[in-house]
């Protein structure tokens, strides 16, 4: 089983759009997939038309695992299960803070799901907290959407700096360009600069597309209603690129 996270310090960059479509694409490729929403905003449940998670008490890794397990929902797409979030997740950091080995609890919790899934994909909230540190230590691959703007570039550099300072393995960070506008000169310049500075950027870029924005109205992943659009093809290409990375681990 491999663990992938969709993560960025910055909000609104396409983390959830990626998580929903990558989960769909992974399951299409025959991988038993569990999509876990760690963000109290609960957008994953909304997109997949499942209810939010029941509240559960989190005292330690075991009760956290039990609570998550009791909230597994089948999606409309066989082979893809979902653990939605709930507003109680806003206390995640406080709960983790009270536990021993507080940066490694999530990794321990996810062990529980190993026999049942080929891939676990986590949609993360935008910030850098104790929960994020748990995500960093639990993930085999962290996908980081970077919109080619100065502020997005800055938060990506904060993240690589944090990994350096904390001696975390920077190789697990896989940034990619998100919401790219082909004709935007500034996008082109920032993409050229960043790929030179960070050769680890994925080759696939996700274009800015109104088709993606329609996910909110259609309430399903783009790949389920717009198979041939540029953005759908880009999500599938990104999935193939990630599967190659995973096969090399
Ligand atoms: N490639 C894209 N083209 C156009 N719109 C997009 C694209 N990706 C995401 N969006 C839209 O941008 C908004 C933010 O996207 P999304 O929710 O995926 O970002 P996020 O990083 O998960 O945000 P948050 O930090 O709030 O969790 C949504 O309305 C979504 O429909
Ligand atoms: Mg999100």
Describe it.
The protein has a single domain, classed as P-loop containing nucleotide triphosphate hydrolases (Rossmann fold). Helix 5 packs across helix 6 (about 130-140). The protein has helices at about 15-30, 45-50, 60-70, 90-95, 105-110, 130-140, 150-165, 185-195, 210-215, 215-220, 220-225, 230-245, and strands at about 1-5, 35, 75, 80-85, 120-125, 140-145, 175. With about 250 residues, it is α/β, with parallel strands linked by helices. A seven-stranded mixed β-sheet has the order 3-4-2-5-1-6-7, with helices on both faces. It binds adenosine-5'-triphosphate and magnesium ion.
Query: How many individual β-strands?
Result: 7
Q: In this structure, how is the largest beta sheet organized?
A: 7 strands, mixed
**Termini distance?**
11 Å
CATH topology: Rossmann fold
How many domains is the backbone divided into? 1
The stretches of 5 or more residues where confidence is low (pLDDT under 50) are none
Q: State the CATH architecture.
A: 3-Layer(aba) Sandwich
Tally of helical runs? 12
